[in-house]
Amino acid sequence: MLDFINYPVSAILLFWHAVFGALLEPDSGYAWALSVVFLVFTLRALLFKPFVHQVRSMRKMQEVAPHIQRLQREYSDDPQRLTAEMRKLQSEQGFNPLGGCLPVLVQVPVFIGLFRVLNGFQPGETSNYFFGEEGVRSFLDAHLFGASLSGTISAPAEELASFGTDRSSMLLVGVPLMLVAAVATHFTTRHSIARQRGERNASVGSPNQQAMMNRIMLWLLPMFAVIAGPFLPLAILLYWLANNFWTLGQQRIVFRRIDLEEAQRQQTREAAPAVVDSSTAEREDFPGRPKDDEQAESPGIPEDRSSEADRPDEHR
């Protein structure tokens, strides 16, 4: 169903494996691990622009949230008027409620495709999208510090033996990956929640229900990495870890850039009325200045010289 996404994802993985396979060895576990990491980085780089659009849309929605709540209170008994006023507000403020959702909807199929490609290297398979039988075999035989990239910690001992590894090796590699992935998920979620809380406090306050949901998400997502980790192949844990590191760095860069843009816009807005104040100050510095001079220099009011032409004696 998502082959139009799975094949490009597989092609990117094939490209990176060709690169790192040439530098190391095609069957090297390090080459496959680096290929998985750079596959994630490549996809995240391609999705960078939708992420920025999503952040800007969410920022705009938070700015207009007080206006939306006011309209909902005023026209709670008149749905048609509420719809009309909401459309008018959207037109005036230049935002779209779907603007924050569409980028997320674009990213979800890509990550599903990435998961399907990595999980498609299974024993007995003769192909996995762009990978032929040799590529599937190479991935299944790849090991990282003695642990199979295709194996799971919870797999039976016989299955692990078929991958050329054992439970001890899987635990030594898999558990640190799970813990680091959980910690990275925690900090990524904390950074995102702290950002949302700061913007919300600046606008409409922090509802208790939302604060409770944030606390749950702060610990639930990292726990999922620990709970689900033993049932996921090591390659998926590598994907999880790389994805969270990229997300954390991307959030810091994008949020800092948007804060800088917002500060520049704020300085521009504050500088605009300062021009009017300076002209007022100039008038106050010269209280004895004739009113005719002020009128002559007023914008939009041409200087009247007819009175000078009507008094020839004065020129003589």
From TrEMBL:
GO cellular component, one term: plasma membrane
Biased composition (Basic and acidic residues): 280-293, 302-316
Keywords: Cell membrane, Chaperone, Membrane, Protein transport, Transmembrane, Transmembrane helix, Transport
Region of interest (Disordered), ranges: 266-316
MF terms in GO: membrane insertase activity
Signal peptide: none
Gene Ontology BP term (one): protein insertion into membrane
Membrane topology: Multi-pass membrane protein
Main location: membrane
Pfam family, one: 60KD_IMP
Membrane-spanning parts: 7-24, 30-52, 95-118, 169-187, 216-242
Residue ranges occupied by any Membrane insertase YidC/Oxa/ALB C-terminal domain in the UniProt entry: 32-254
Family: Belongs to the OXA1/ALB3/YidC family. Type 1 subfamily.
Quaternary assembly: Interacts with the Sec translocase complex via SecD. Specifically interacts with transmembrane segments of nascent integral membrane proteins during membrane integration.
Protein name: Membrane protein insertase YidC
Organism expressing this protein natively: Actinopolyspora erythraea
